[in-house]
Amino acid sequence: ADPDQWAAPQVVFNREDSQMGGRLLDLAPDPTGGVALIFGRRTVANNVASTTIYLEKLAAGANDWSQPITLISGNRGSYPKLAVGGDGTVYVVYNLGSGSTVHVGAVALAPGQTRASAEVTLTAGEEGAQGIPALAVDQNNKVWIVYMHEPTGGKANEVRVLRGAVIPSEPAPETPAATPEASPEAAATPTA
Q1: How far lies 174's CA from each of 94, 120, 156, 163, in Å?
Q2: Up-side HSE of residue 138: CA atoms within 13 Å toward CB?
Q3: Between the CA of residue 179 and those of 13, 171, 176, 182, what are the distances in Å?
Q4: DSSP reduced 3-state for 156
Q5: Best label site of 9, 21, 25, 41, fewest CB within 10 Å?
């Protein structure tokens, strides 16, 4: 590949007040056109960490990213991964909880919606810890999820897969936030 043919880098968002890391970031193509981006912001208040995961989209041929949509917030969200189904539904999986009580959580966002689905614990009922998930949506719009499993008192020595995982995409009921938090501002793509 010839780097001289690449587009110039652009700022999508800026975390001047905190550090970014790969464990709160993912990008995926949208089969209906463009790309989808998720990114997180971790805050600590009263010695309690909370992560908020946002979604932005860039339509095919567009220069400006959409405004961020808040997907999840709380003691969740590390290692998020996203995939977009053939119908444009966005699926996001992530660590739910922390330490030895981690499970795999998921939400979905149907096309045209601004509120994610209710959270689903995909590994409910499994003993031990599960985490660091990845996912894909196949040609039949079935969601596949792979994750690490650590048995209680053991080591993370298994990789498990969920075929055809069910993640409903109906928006979760609207609930007022206890403490409103402003979403980060979307950055416009610089023009040449």
Answers
A1: 22, 16, 37, 30
A2: 9
A3: 23, 21, 9, 10
A4: coil
A5: 9
Residue the block writes with tokens 């498990």: 160
Cβ neighbours for 107, distance < 8 A, ≥ 6 positions apart: 71, 72, 91, 92, 116, 117, 118, 119, 120, 167, 172
5: buried, middle or exposed (CB in 10 Å: 19+, 13-18, 0-12)? exposed
| DSSP character string of 15-65 | -TTS---GGGEEEEE-TTSSEEEEEEEEEEETTEEEEEEEEEEE-TT-SBP
The span from the CA of 116 to the CA of 109, in Å, is 5
SS3 192: coil
Handedness of CA 94, 97, 100, 103 (dihedral sign): negative
What letter would DSSP give residue 102?
-
Average pLDDT by stretches of 10, the chain with 192 residues: 78 70 87 95 84 94 92 91 97 89 94 95 91 95 95 89 93 67 48 44
Note the pTM of the prediction, 2 decimals.
Answer: 0.85
Q: Identify the CA nearest to 124 among candidates 90, 89, 155, 162.
A: 162
Residue where the block lists tokens 């689905």: 117
